[in-house]
Write a structure and sequence with these properties.
The chain is of the alpha+beta class. It folds into two domains: about 120 residues; about 90 residues, Ribosomal Protein S8, Chain: A, domain 1, CATH 3.30.1370. The protein contains seven helices and eight strands, in the order E-H-H-E-H-E-E-H-E-H-E-H-H-E-E. A three-stranded antiparallel sheet has the order 2-4-3. A three-stranded antiparallel sheet has the order 6-8-7. A two-stranded antiparallel sheet has the order 1-5. A hairpin with a 2-residue loop joins strand 3 and strand 4. The longest helix is centred in the N-terminal third of the chain and has 14 residues. The radius of gyration is 19 Å and the shape is globular.
């Protein structure tokens, strides 16, 4: 069982903007449920302080039990198994569901990333239960990024691609879309966006950058996080 207390020690390279490792962590083919399960699997593989657990089983009997990370899942186990078997990820060499269990083999690529962590590279610790409420992968991405840095800074053009914002939108609409995505993240206290004083003015350091402040002990959520533009909300996708 993947316990609610499970946390992921994510290799730091995976939270560096525009890094190859970051791109590998978030393939475009995964649903939010599949992404959450992948993170749970990676956490299970990296539980030991001195070695990678290369191959292991997760029993389906307890998959939706009270203390499971996936106790919130309401769909049938046949749909869960279908979603699991549809997972393809660079950090997972093989994943199958047979005899009431999920069998996982971690890829050599991810084992090498963890080996770097054992040497000196401090990982980013992610409490996985906090990710379970998110309906979109973009919210999961932002939650993880804000855990890696305080504050987390990213350029508008990077976030358009990273968060899946439409490139057909005008820049003003893209900025609004990114702000609304930030507001879905439950570990953010505040954020700001640095817009040039004039569009024609020479660009200076920080222009077109978002700065996102993680919610820490003693902080409160600023009112900017509660302001949402009116509009239709997309229906959540199935797992």
């Amino acid at each position: 069982m993947l316990s609610k207390q499970l946390f992921l020690r994510l290799p730091r390279a995976c939270v560096i903007n525009n890094s190859e490792e970051q791109a590998l962590l978030y393939p475009d083919n995964l649903t939010p449920f599949q992404m959450k399960l992948v993170l749970g699997i990676l956490a299970q593989a990296n539980m030991s302080n001195d070695k990678v657990i290369e191959n292991f089983d997760i029993f389906l009997q307890n998959f939706k039990s009270q203390h499971s990370l996936f106790s919130w899942v309401k769909t049938s186990m046949s749909k869960v198994i279908e979603a699991i078997e549809g997972i393809t990820h660079p950090f997972i060499h093989n994943i199958t569901c047979t005899d009431g269990r999920i069998n996982v083999t971690i890829s050599q690529l991810y084992r090498k990333l963890i080996a770097r962590q054992f040497l000196a590279e401090k990982p980013v610790n992610i409490e996985l239960e906090a990710l379970m409420a998110y309906k979109k992968v973009s919210s999961i991405k932002l939650h993880i990024q804000t855990k890696g840095f305080y504050p987390y800074r990213a350029n508008l053009y990077f976030l358009v691609e990273f968060l899946g914002v439409s490139t057909n939108q005008r820049r003003k609409e893209q900025i609004r879309s990114i702000k609304n995505k930030i507001r879905t993240v439950n570990n953010v206290a505040d954020f700001n966006y640095q817009h040039p004083v004039e569009i024609s003015a020479p660009e200076k350091a920080g222009d077109y950058d978002f700065t996102i402040f993680r919610l820490r002990d003693g902080d409160w959520i600023e009112t900017s996080m509660n302001k949402r533009k009116p509009g239709k909300r997309a229906k959540p996708k199935s797992i």
